[in-house]
Amino acid sequence: MEFLSERWYLDVIDIAIVAFIFYKLFMLVKGTRASQMFAGLVLLVVASLVAQWFQLNALNWIVNSLKTVWVIAFVIIFQPELRKGLALIGQNRLFRPFIRVQEFGALGEILKAVEKMSEEKIGALIAMEGDIGLRNYEETGTPLNAKVTAELLVTLFTPHSPLHDGAVIVRGLEAVAAGCILPLSQNPSLPADLGTRHRAAVGLTEETDAVVIVVSEETGAISIASRGALKRRLDKGSLRSELSRLLVSREPEETEESAIAQPRHASPTRPQTPSSSA
C-alpha cells in the first residue's frame, strides 16, 4: 500500500464530492436541451486532456485558446439550469433558519390573489405552513403540488368550482392541496358573527404556527389569523405589512400578539367587538 498517500482518505472524500457534483449536474440537465450542450462541453474537456497527454500541439493550442471563454460560455449557455440549481440549494432545510425563500417567493402571488378576490367578494381560505407541518390537514383535501400563482388561487376559490369550499395549504413555493378541512375554533370569546372560514382559520392557528388568510364571501373583507388570534378588516397596505411581519419572524412578542387580537385604537384591557359581519 506504498502507493497510497498518508492522507489517502482525503483523496477519497475529494473524489466522492466531485462525483456527487457531476451526478447532480447530469440530473439537473437531464431531459432538457442543455443536456446535449453539456455533453459537448464534456467532449471538449476530454479533448483537452487527450491533447495534453499525447502532446498534440495543434489541438492543444486550439483548446488552450478557448479556455479564456469557457467560463463565460458556460454561464451563458446554462443560465436557466444554474439559476434553478441555486434556487434548489437555497430551499434546502439547512438554510431555512437564515433565509425565508419560500415564504417571500410566493408572497407576491398570494397578495395579488387575495386583493383580487377581495374586490370581487370571492370567499377564500389560504393557510401558509410554518415550522409545524400541516400534512394531517393536507390529506383531507385534493393534492395539487402546483406552483403558487395568483391565477391558480383565484381559480380554485371561484364559486361553484369543485375545490372552492375548503382551504388551500401553501408550503414554500407550492400549493400542496386544496379543499382541505381545518379544525374549527371552540374559543367562546370569539365574536358571534364569525363564519366557518374565520373559525377554521383561528382553529388551525391555535394548534399550529401557520399563518392563515381569510377573505369574506359576504363583504370581501380580509382577515389574518396567527397564534390563535384574528386581525380583521385589513386594507391592502395593512395586509402587506402584517404578512411581512409575521413571515419575517414567527416568534412575535406578546405585545404583537395583542395587536393581532384587537385594533390599535382599542383599549389594551378590553377587546373591541366589530359591529358588522365579516
Quick description:
With 278 residues, this protein is of the alpha+beta class. The chain has helices at residues 8-29, 34-54, 57-77, 79-90, 101-120, 135-138, 150-157, 196-207, 236-248, 254-261, and strands at 124-128, 142-147, 167-171, 174-180, 211-215, 222-226, 229-234.
Structure description:
The protein is an alpha+beta fold and 278 residues long. The protein folds into two domains: 8-90, no CATH class; 101-261, YojJ-like (1. 51% of the residues lie in helices and 14% in strands. The chain contains ten helices and seven strands. Strands 2-4-3-1-5-6-7 form a seven-stranded mixed β-sheet, sandwiched between helices. The longest helix has 22 residues, at 8-29. The protein is elongated, with a radius of gyration of 27 Å. The chain starts with 7 loop residues before the first helix and ends in a 17-residue tail after the last helix. Residues 99-103 and 250-278 have low confidence and may be disordered.
